């Protein structure tokens, strides 16, 4: 199941099989809870663990560890229990853990008070192709691998709430791609064997020995329309003590990139907008749309202002810009942009002065 990383190979296969015709963003849950290893249930250690848990929650909701440097956040970390919903202890593989849950609304309110961007629950899914050294050879890292690097992807995905997918590497894929294709950053070749994975982004990673260390490089692409001349959206490279540390460094950089792209700050100004949905068949859709809009990190308030036939319009008060808002809508699998009607026919798009008009898909 998606915790954040799609873990077992069979599940990854079923995910590919049943989402071929859907959009790809993942709705990330558990953004307001965190587990922290502890050695005892003593009060001083509990208090320190609650602070660490709140730090993790703040990072998951903003997307970057830089948010912890904010003075408002620093003040709140001194009293984490004031945002606490509940906590408890559990044992996992012989390790005692403190599990803490914090109140979502109060966490978001804290981030807004600190004037920090907030990253919502809809987050892009990234497919990683990783070429790395193993036992004197270069291999591709698979979803089913038990290597430390695979676990590093899983741990970071859980910690930051960044959904990650690794390839199954079945026979079809192994015949269509080899590690040199990834090392050489031949994105067009990699994209040609990635069609089964309905991800938003495609990441090519090369990790190579460099004396007692490793060198690494990451190139990020949108998954659609890649050819041999397509430049990466984002690149990152460096060196690390080992491949697992290289994975962590690259994932931190990727998290910061997504933070700048999807986390939305309060502009401090009144930004009004509207959004229109057509082809509404049931009142249930209107209720679902309103519920969805009101939980978006880009929206201060959403009010249903017009119903005409099968068309509904909501007036919005935004934290960020309309572009930020539209970027978030593009991540929602239940929403699609309606193609304008042909010439001579009624077009809701033209009636909105060129603004996109949307459709809410029934399950």
What would you note in describing this structure?
By secondary structure, this protein is an alpha+beta fold. It folds into 3 domains: 9-28 and 121-262, Rossmann fold; 33-113, no CATH class; 271-360. It is built from 12 helices and 16 strands. The chain has helices at residues 9-18, 43-62, 71-77, 104-113, 148-160, 171-176, 179-183, 187-192, 243-262, 283-295, 322-329, 348-351, and strands at 26-27, 33-37, 84-92, 95-102, 122-123, 126-134, 137-140, 164-165, 201-210, 213-222, 234-240, 271-278, 299-308, 311-318, 335-337, 358-360. Strands 6, 7, 8, 9, 10 and 11 form a 6-stranded mixed β-sheet that branches. A 5-stranded mixed β-sheet has the order 13-14-12-16-15. Strand 9 (201-210) and strand 10 form a beta hairpin. The chain is globular and about 65 Å long. Residues 1-23 and 340-352 have low confidence and may be disordered.
* Total domain count: 3
User: Mean pLDDT, as a whole number?
Assistant: 85
> Tell me, what is the CATH class of the largest domain?
Alpha Beta
Percent of residues in beta strands: 25-35%
The CATH topology of the largest domain is Rossmann fold
How many angstroms does the end-to-end distance come to?
20 Å
State the CATH architecture of the largest domain. 3-Layer(aba) Sandwich
List segments where confidence is low: pLDDT < 50 over at least 5 consecutive residues. Answer: 1-23, 340-352
- Secondary-structure content class: alpha+beta
Radius of gyration: 22 Å
Q: Helix tally?
A: 12
Oligomer: single chain
The biggest sheet, with number of strands, parallel, antiparallel or mixed sense and barrel status, is: 6 strands, mixed
Series of secondary-structure elements, N-terminal to C-terminal: HEEHHEEHEEEHEHHHEEEHEHEEHEHE
Q: What form results from the Cα inertia axes?
A: globular
